Amino acid sequence: MAQTPQAKYRKDYQSPSHTITDIDLTFELNETQTVVTAKSKLTQLKETTSLKLDGEALTLKQVCVDGENWSNYELLEDGLLVHSLPKQCDLTIVTEINPQGNSALEGLYLSDGAFCTQCEAEGFRRITYFLDRPDVLAKYTTTIVADKKQFPSLLSNGNRIDGGALEDGKHWVKWQDPHPKPSYLFALVAGDFDILEDSYQTKSGRDVQLEIYVDKGNLDRANHAMLSLINAMKWDEERFDLEYDLDIYMIVAVDFFNMGAMENKGLNVFNSKFVLANEKTATDTDYLGIEAVIGHEYFHNWTGNRVTCRDWFQLSLKEGLTVFRDQEFSSDLGSRAVNRINNVRIIRGPQFAEDASPMSHPIRPDKVIEMNNFYTLTVYEKGSEVIRMIHTLLGEANFQKGMSLYFERHDGTAATCEDFVSAMEDASGIYLKHFRLWYSQSGTPVVKVKSHFDAESSTFSLEVEQYTPATQEQSEKQPLHIPLAIELYDSEGSLVPLVLGGEKVSNVLNVTDSHQVFTFENIAEEPTPSLLLDFSAPVRLEYEYTDEELGFLMVHARNEFARWDAGQMLLAKYIKSNVERVQANQEVELPPAVVEAYRGVLLNEDLDPAFVAEAMTLPSFNEVSGWYDLVDVDAIDFVLTTFKKQLAIQLHDDLERVYSSSAQSDYSLEHSAIGKRALRNRCLSYLAHTDKGFELVEQQYKNATNMTDTMAAMQAANSAQLSCREHLMSDYSQKWKHDGLVMDKWFQLQGTNPDKEALSVIKETMAHEAFSMKNPNRVRSLVGSFMNMNPVAFHSKTGDGYKFAGGILRELNDSNPQVASRLLDPFLKLKKYDQHRQKLIKDELVSLKNMHNLAKDLYEKVTKALEE
Ligand code: TRP
Ligand code: ZN
Fold first, then answer.
1. Nearest CA among 14, 25, 1, 53 for reference residue 117
2. I want to staple 193 with a disulfide (CB 3.0 to 4.6 A). Which of 202, 213, 598, 829 is the partner?
């Protein structure tokens, strides 16, 4: 490494010395030599006539001040220092960049021949020297010049105001964005696309043109994205009273993209995975993902773009809030319970794991080396949980008042998390002083509850203790303000009113101290408590339920989430006890009562099939790993696999009955149809482990009319290691080998292959014609799934899995550090494995650390992991 990367601290925030109010950009597009002319209106804000601009991987051609050539500047490693500037001036900078050589997919790059940009977080500095920070808001005018035949579509933010033909077969288009924005929201796209067009009229009567740009030939896969966009626009008007503010909204789908999608003003750029779908190529899960991401990026137009972040430490201001909004969107349109279950799985699985890793950080981080490393589950998903807790404490009406006040105060500016909380407080009159600790304290709080019934005084008390274990970067922890939602049920399953100190209270308890007792009055018989209802706070709950109580809650809890959660707790008890049994060389034992509880759920026709499908799902290997300080890979895997087989064998008659009775003749995307398919395919995943497995799976693959059913068959064949697996895999590959996006599903099956020889097959698969190390989706599908979802092979004691991953990481360090850094995450958990494995992982981390050109993305994580 050339220089040791330097950390930035939140406490060191300084407002900028200058601002840029307007910028006029001209791009003369060329694959290897694009010339960018940037004319900025500059205003000095502080007592200095020198200006430091950010810049990376740029070739400087010219600097002019007020039209005069300017030589009074210094070229720095990370930018340009211009001296002796007038208080106000026009600063023109000409740079040259090489989009073709840009494999990091940050700044201006080529995706399958089309030019596109990715500027968040700090990619604009790879386009021109600029004040590349979110608190500098400018009005952008962008002129694009390119070959007309090759690049008929020339797009940027805002409205198209001019254009025309040029000599040599070139043409040009000029765009103007009337809304001042930070540089990270800038976008440019040039290419030859098919365009799906539609329109939307906002509730105040503005006509908005909607355009989705996809690769030629993919028009029949863009309809769901368009429908989702229209639904999102409507929903934001209805629920948040927020309207769109330009005359055009464009979405471009590209194949080469580091993340999910990007909310550039008026011109979203999407990973094609979150746009393209038809029933033959996409699963129901893909469809729901598209709806969520289209919604997410659209909702950023207000929470992110109209009000943006003062600095990157405030990222959760836009991301936590926008995730909350997209979760609400999906919940209002689909099943609230199923959405909540899936969101909670992410928190309890990978987010809690992040808290326990050397990368633990608060939702508003204090220290950052590479900003790209902080687009995390903590900032996004836990950030959303923090917003959700505010929503729980204030209620919907007050929350909406808070949102209005937030926009009234901060529209058109760059704000902080503190600004958001203050608006919520001022609008509601509800005090959130203690609650703010959620923004600065990292780690997963543990809430331990004990109950005590006193027949004589007719009281039932809950004794609540909370503590947060230390995290690597923060040893001291304070008690948090935790909204603990509860319900009490009598033996009939009826709700028991909550009375504290003679007064009826709401079902959200304010837990604020490390130790508190809530004594409920007028309780005639010992009730069954349902605790942390709807997962009212992102904490680990500990309460000693009996099997009977959990069985009771699985049936009687008033809300579906609580019923699901009771089922998960029941399974958790037996997963834990059986891991111990396996470690003591005893057999796995699943008590008949547990099996019967699951039979009850499966056969209960009053339940939503989508919900039953979730309830019938065992916790993932990764979630279970999170319960342990030391992960016994083989024991956990064995218990989960055995549970699956035992449930399959003992429930097989009923599974078969539900499987055949829930077949559907037509394919529809109605939520009820999606739910029915989910349940049917859940049944198949169990049945694959029975004698009937081979026959049913082959039959389903052969008869499938949609990708959901095709993939369910292949997944079942893969995880149950059926002998038809090979045949199905080769049939699928024959059919789809020319379509990388559809092949990703196949790559993922190779990556998660439970077979002993999986790794050698994975290595061969890298030579598949649809695979490319340059495409992040392909890498994540094959290598990412291996590292994250193939625990036995990845953690093989031979170290082969780690060595393979290490090699991939070293290769990606050079080409795409952002993707490498995400892929590295499983290595961060090294201390959760035995000494032997720890040593092997450490070897890989050290070999990364010793690279002469280690990117700062990897440097930040590797050094933290080795510091432990
Ligand atoms: N702001 C984007 C979102 O949440 C995230 C994103 C897209 C991103 N591309 C990125 C973040 C590249 C960092 C780098 O929707
Ligand atoms: Zn976002």
1. 25
2. 213
